[in-house]
Amino acid sequence: MSSSILRFAPSPNGCLHLGHAYSALATWDAAARLGGTALLRIEDIDTERCKPEFTQAIFEDLRWLGLTWPEPVMHQSQRLDLYMEAADRLLEIGLLYPCFCSRSDIAARATETDPDGAPVYPGTCRHLPPEEQIRRIERGDAVQYRLDVGAAMARVGVLTFTTVMPTVLDRPQVRYARPERWGDVVLQRKDTPTSYTLSVVVDDAAQGITHVTRGRDLDAITDVHVLLQMLLGLPSPTYHFHRLLLDDAGRKLSKSDGAQSLAELRAQGWSSQDVRRAVGF
Asked: Where is the Glutamyl/glutaminyl-tRNA synthetase class Ib catalytic domain (predicted)?
């Protein structure tokens, strides 16, 4: 039990709100229950939206909540070469291919939606001839790289992973993964050599993460993470999916919808104990 390692991995593209506070406190609580360690990781691969001042604010908010973590803190922006190496391995075994489609192209041709309600990529570029791929890359067309999920599933066969619910101390349960629901997901984006889906798998393995605590909104995408772990020969952690904090309209609290930040609550006179009580800790 003492070897358990968990992580809280926010993106510094805005200020933390009560939903982040709940997720962080849930992670540290789970680590304490397991007699393990909670790590902080900064997922800052989005270089346009992620800012150093938001990273500093994350540190301040978490310390204000009374949380501590081992140093140094991993920053994904410093590990891009490792994500590229992982992508290259998938390319070498024929599971990664270039895609030149825009969002409007995909929306126009898609016939299915993924678990998040977005159009599933219809496979337009999956079988482009190599000479056509090279011609378009050399021409400077915007390109991203997708995982051939069908070929990947044929390679690995039946795919399962382990969850613990409703708490991290409950009896482990085995679940079947169905990554095909997502279609051929993007692993390398047009503006960065990686994606959340690829980098989170590489980093969890690098940090020896044994238990991943994440919101229920990330339940379905875990199927793709487990597939990548199998393809790259990486260990698969045990997963725990915690509840989400919702606004008055029943939507998950989010930065984009203007959820009130912890800094704003602090300025209004909230104490860290007020936050803990508000989110159930």
From this structure: 7-270
